[in-house]
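ugh ok so i messed up the first submission bc i forgot one of the chains. this is the corrected input, ALL of the components this time, i swear. 666 residues overall. if the numbers dont match what u have on ur side tell me asap before i send this to the collaborators (the ones from the other lab, u know who)
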Amino acid sequence: MKKLINDPRAVVEETMEGFGLAHADLVTVSLDPMYVVRKDAPVVTKVGLVSGGGSGHEPLHAGYVGRGMLDAAVPGAVFTSPTPDAVLPATLAANTGAGVVLIVKNYTGDVLNFETAAELAQAEGVDVRTVLVNDDVAVEDSLYTAGRRGVGGTVLVEKLAGAAAERGDSLDAVEEIAKRVNAHVRSMGVALTACTVPHAGVPSFELEEDEIEIGIGIHGEPGRHRLKLESADAITARLLSPILADLLPTPGQRLLLFVNGMGGTPQSELYIVFRAATQILEDAGLQVERSLVGNYVTALEMQGCSLTVLALDDEMIELWDAPVHTAALRWGV
Amino acid sequence: MKKLINDPRAVVEETMEGFGLAHADLVTVSLDPMYVVRKDAPVVTKVGLVSGGGSGHEPLHAGYVGRGMLDAAVPGAVFTSPTPDAVLPATLAANTGAGVVLIVKNYTGDVLNFETAAELAQAEGVDVRTVLVNDDVAVEDSLYTAGRRGVGGTVLVEKLAGAAAERGDSLDAVEEIAKRVNAHVRSMGVALTACTVPHAGVPSFELEEDEIEIGIGIHGEPGRHRLKLESADAITARLLSPILADLLPTPGQRLLLFVNGMGGTPQSELYIVFRAATQILEDAGLQVERSLVGNYVTALEMQGCSLTVLALDDEMIELWDAPVHTAALRWGV
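and heres the new structure output, hopefully the right one now
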């Protein structure tokens, strides 16, 4: 295992220390229990937005804490759900009295731990709503999931719900936006190489030198099938086809196309995939109205990518374009 | 070789097509000759800023074209200088009559080709100045260089000179800022793994499973020495020590600390290095005033990082904070 780390067991803590130092203008980092909150939290009368999950997917979620997106994020150990005793104080820190929406990727551990934290926060008088993200069309159930997994679409849910909360929407309205985005977003990924969890020290799985895995999860958990390496155009078609078959966009539908790097893929390859995906979507009579290309939901140093397609409506476009100021997404401010 | 590509010989062209599609609001991409210009270029009466070099370092340079940074970028083949017949039209496109500054990383091929293009542009009546970036303290001469190589510091030169040009500084003033930044910036890198040039198909060099290379270049060219993998803290000290010995900052000096990923390194590891570097700098009585952490000058899928330290003055801080709107760096707009 070759990593720029010190103690494998201290990876998350040292990452968050470094993150706090680099973004001291944006966030405050609590190390024990571990969570990240907006420097200016709680923002008076605003609905709070909290997310979290296992580490190793950086910049998800701490990189999305700031104006126009999350109020707090809770990183667990690598690929391991954060515990309720960390989710609870993050939820309380994000509460201004207007209530809190928890955005939870659909993994069994996350669902349980966030649900427990929600109940504890409710017992303290906070109105808490939970929105599950389950955008991965690759598999219906998985190693860590009942139902579909939450992957790249999470970033879009957090951005759009975050913009709604920032403009002063009610708790009901922010919850509705988050659910609406989740209902209209689909994703699927591919791995060219495995990744190694620091405290495990060995790759999570093995791929032959000429083999890729279609439908991979962001923890390296199994996807749909393995096959020989193909061209970027062919792989892109393999990812987009089940996405479109499930999303069923109407002709002329405006889309947000998000090509996400898994952590170890050069940016050039992501743009080659973006090019291929745009061609397929436009040939299908669809309209790529907004785009995002880069490493936004990663699996450590895994090589590969995921495609995420969101069917946009006017309000979603307005919320996407709204100012955001976080470590990993920033515009308009 | 496992890459998300189609034809290895079409990697740069397809990358730039995808880039142009994803950032159609920002840039116009010319494929033959290949260069990228600001959508709104030429901006009336503004000094033009042009850079370029071999591809494979994305987002450098095309990712820095836009308001407050470059007016044009010229990507060559992977790890290969662009030719004068591409640099010339990019230079002409960036010229509004106020002259053009070419920012050139100090590699023999780049220096020659940009110099030829500068002469051709001058023959067409454009006042052209060339600023060489040579911030890498690792080696004095290298495979591809007489003198020090230009690496991470290039991004800072482009940002600060770009902000100076955007606020309306004269050609002399923009040239002076670019040279001043280069005079006060130092970098050094480390590789944990090699990278593979697509049309070569095999790794540029070999590293044992427990071996790293200190002082690596951004094309995988040799650095200072190889050693066994150490802790992130120890590696960070090995990179910072020669930087500080060369930069010789005065006590209390304000610094911009830039931790750059080589392309295949997880963000978490970059923050662990940032944490270590901050501790060393603060223990030395120096002040980390601004920071940048991420993949900004890469070497394809290489795992590793570089550290860049810029000694800031008041004007540099003002120029760093000024609005920028490019594909890879964006704030204030």
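quick check: The domain at 185-312 of chain B is CATH 3.30.1180.20 (Hypothetical Protein Tm841; Chain: A;domain 3). that seems consistent at least. Helices of chain B lie at 11-22, 84-94, 108-123, 153-166, 171-183, 232-247, 267-283, 314-321.
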